[in-house]
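seq:
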Amino acid sequence: MKILRFLPLVSLLAAGAALRAADTPAANTSLVDVIYVHPENFTDVKDTSYGNDRVRDEYLAELKQHIESEAKHYIPAGDHLTLRITDVKMAGDFEPWRGPNFIDVRIVKSIYPPRINLEFSLTDAGGKVLKQGQEHVTNLSFLDEINIYFPDDPLRYEKALIDYWFRHEFSRLKK
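struct:
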C-alpha cells in the first residue's frame, strides 16, 4: 500500500528525466565554441594583482556562459561561431600607490577600459566560412553608457563589452 503512494512521484520524476534526456542533444549542438588561448597569460582576469587561478577560472567560466547566452540572439540557427579569446583586460586597474589598504582594490576609471582580444569564425551548417576576423574589442566610453548588469557583478563591464561586440559584428545576421 505504501508503494502506491509514491507511484505518482516516481512517474513524475521519470517524466522529468525523459524530458531532460530529450533536451540533451539540443544542448550539445551549441551555437558557439568559446576557446581561451593560454588564459594563464591573460592580462588580468583575476581578483588581485597577485593572481589567482581559481578566481580566473570562475571568471572565465562566467564569461563563457554569458557569450553562449548572448550568441543565441545573434547567430542564426544552423550557423556556428568559433570564438578564440587570446586576452582579457578587465575594466579598472590596481593602484598600489594608494597604500596597503588598496592593494586588492580594482579602481575603475575611464582611463582603464575593458579589452578583449579575440579571433572568430562563423560557419554555416555545411562548414562554409561566412565571416571571420580578429578583433581587439574595447569601449573607451564604457562608463558613460548604461550598463544593465548589477553593480556587484565583477564582470559587468566585460559582459557589456561582449554585448557591444555581438551587436556591432552580428546584428544583421539574425533573421
